[in-house]
Design a protein that fits this description.
Spore Coat Polysaccharide Biosynthesis Protein SpsA, Chain A; 11 helices; alpha/beta; 228 residues
């Protein structure tokens, strides 16, 4: 019998972090959740660290959208949850997610969790609050929030667009035409390393600029050069 939930975790050179993400999902596996790890051809020991915690593990060419789609193609469940390698999900998030989808009585249901950003800067809590507030108002989710959807919704929009950046915004825009997202208050924790390494407010201004340019029609390929 297919699992009720498949979790797709994407990673690239995350040997020092991937086990921390996957270990809490061992309890989910015991409840019948399928854990699919999609590695983007890592050059460290990511695959070795991830393998004991995965129901399935596959290696594909790097690219977030490409990896997300590859995981979804393997999934046997009617519900899909997409996580990044540095996302730590709440212990009972699998139960909450499936219950929320079931209660929605919507075959095209989709949504996301709130996010908490882990790090030293006190501003990270403010940034997380703004991300969650903006997402609730706009109906746009980010990958850091743990996007989930039914298989029917994923198939209806054709999966993630194979682009190097903003794949989360792009699929949210298409999913939003099917239904408003389920916004769960439980928090997925994500690493603040991007903000703290590059500078908190410098990163915020960069992301605002990239989003504005994307909204104005600039290509994701062009934006990816500035992001990196």
């Amino acid at each position: 019998m297919p699992a009720q939930l498949s979790v797709i975790v994407i990673c690239l050179n995350e040997g020092t972090a991937i086990a921390r993400t996957l270990a809490p999902l061992d309890a989910w596996r015991a409840r019948g959740v399928e854990i699919i790890v999609v590695d983007g051809t890592s050059e460290d020991d990511t695959v070795q660290q991830a393998s004991p915690h995965a129901s399935r593990l596959v290696v594909v060419s790097a690219g977030r959208a490409r990896q997300l789609n590859a995981g979804a193609a393997l999934a046997e469940s009617q519900n899909l949850l997409f996580l990044h390698a540095d996302n730590i999900a709440p212990n009972d998030a699998d139960l909450i997610l499936c219950s929320s989808i079931y209660q929605s009585n919507n075959p095209m249901a989709w949504g996301r969790f709130n996010v908490r950003i882990e790090g030293q800067s006190r501003w990270l809590a403010v940034i997380a609050f703004m991300m969650n507030w903006r997402s609730r108002i706009t109906g746009i989710a980010t990958g850091d929030q743990g996007i989930f959807m039914t298989r029917a919704a994923f198939d209806a929009v054709g999966g993630f667009a194979d682009q190097p950046l903003m794949e989360d915004i792009e699929i949210s825009q298409r999913l939003r035409r099917l239904s408003r997202p389920i916004c769960l208050s439980q928090k997925v924790t994500t690493s603040g390393r991007r903000w703290e390494t590059r500078g908190v407010w410098r990163t915020v201004m960069l992301m605002w600029s990239l989003r504005w340019r994307y909204w104005r029609g600039e290509s994701a390929a062009s934006l990816a050069k500035d992001y990196r």
